[in-house]
Design goal:
This protein is mostly helical. Helix content is about 70%, strand content about 0%. This is DUF4025 domain-containing protein.
Amino acid sequence: MSKDNNTKQEQNQSAKESAEIQSNALREFIEDKTGNPGTKGLVDESTARLSDDQNRLITQHNLRK
């Protein structure tokens, strides 16, 4: 019974290591393609979903309700 238990523990450890390696590789690939998630730049008004004025008007309207 202990041999089966040791085998299962080794398989679980191997699976965890494999998943961790795969996760790290995927994370590095995504960071290479998209950049570091910690870097935030300025918001470009042309790509923003709502302009600041429109957002302010919506907020004021919602506060009146």
